[in-house]
Amino acid sequence: MYTAAAALYPDALASSVTLPMEILQAASQMASVGSRGRAQARFLLTAPEATPLRLASGIQLTPDLPFAQLPPLDLLILPAIWRNPLPTLKGAAPWLSQLSAIAGGGTRICSVGTASCLLAEAGLLNGRPATTHWNYFERFARRYPRVQLKTRHLITQSNNIYCVGSVNSIADLMVHIVEDWFGTRVARAVEQQFSPEIRRSFRAAAYQDGPRSSHHDETVLRAQQYLQDHLASGASLDALARQLDISPRTLSRRFRNATGYTPQQYLNSLRLTTARDLLRRSNLSIAEICWQLGLQDVSYFARLFRRHHGMSPMRYRQAARGKLFDPQPAPGSGPAA
């Protein structure tokens, strides 16, 4: 079971606590189907003391555990801070050192909005990329000159430290984490439930300060880049093997050893990621999207998409744009072209 927690402080925005909590709860329920209904994740609230805390919005929340009694965590969220973060920074001074200990244990820590100041105050962002709420860019840069502020990115990642610039962006990150924990099908189902029309994929939105693959096989890294660069032109695995001067069999073996996927599986993942973005944000026909993916067979693409996402590409487009019903034609109008 995965364990996530959110830290509470008086000026925390409740929405940056409840939204990731609800996304993770939904993912846990979906993932539990194959585990006889056993919960696959839990979400805790924590604070310096386990006493009810009334937020600036008037909402009262009760921590489950104080910081000192937290179990090992897979994820810790630092909620967005309402307006000026300085009062929260002063109040957090006694427990900021615990963030370093939690991060040192390998826990993913994610700050929302100006909660990145908490990470910066704890020294966890020195020399690392980070982002924060857009209205605080200049003040953040002045106060934390050792942090690599990325003003053009809504999400940053450096090892296990994440920053997101807004409450909407925490939804993007949570879908990414759900996919990492529970797989693509659960992540896409969660995505459809929680505002898919405003979502950008983690890969499209995030700044990451290292290679996007955790392995160190340079040949496979070249292969991954080749597949990305030649997606629209119809990437050929045989041509890729020739480009790398290795046999297709050796390519397949090294690719699987490095990434856990065959080259074809990785290529299909790239195609599906691109397809989702095009379905959400363009008016291209399904056939035109196939062309963008380097595919000629529309029926093959539709089967591939349905197998991974449980719905047709057209249905996905309708859901992603919030059009879950077909409007009735006006009286006297002909059938749609």
Summarize the model shown.
The chain is an alpha/beta fold and 337 residues long.
List the helices and strands and how they pair.
Blueprint: E1 2-7, H1 15-31, E2 41-47, E3 53-54, E4 60-61, E5 65-66, E6 75-78, H2 86-92, H3 96-104, E7 108-112, H4 116-121, E8 129-130, H5 137-143, E9 148-149, E10 155-158, E11 161-164, H6 167-182, H7 184-193, H8 202-205, E12 206-208, H9 218-229, H10 237-244, H11 248-259, H12 263-281, H13 286-292, H14 298-309, H15 313-320
Parallel strand pairs: 1-2, 1-6, 2-5, 6-7, 7-11, 8-9, 10-12
Antiparallel strand pairs: 3-4, 10-11
Helix pairs in contact: 1-6, 1-7, 6-7, 9-12, 12-15
Rg, nearest Å: 22 Å
Provide the β-strand percentage band: 5-15%
Mean pLDDT: 85
Tally of helical segments = 15
Strand elements, count: 12
Shape: globular
Strand order of the largest sheet: 5-2-1-6-7-11-10-12
Largest sheet: 8 strands, mixed
- Segments where pLDDT lies below 50 for 5+ residues? 323-337
CATH superfamily of the largest domain, by name, is Class I glutamine amidotransferase (GATase) domain
Which topology of the largest domain does CATH recognise? Rossmann fold
Q: What is the CATH architecture term of the largest domain?
A: 3-Layer(aba) Sandwich
| Structural class by SSE content | alpha/beta
Helical amount among residues, as a percent range?
40-55%
How many structural domains in the coordinates? Answer: 2
| N- to C-terminal distance | 50 Å
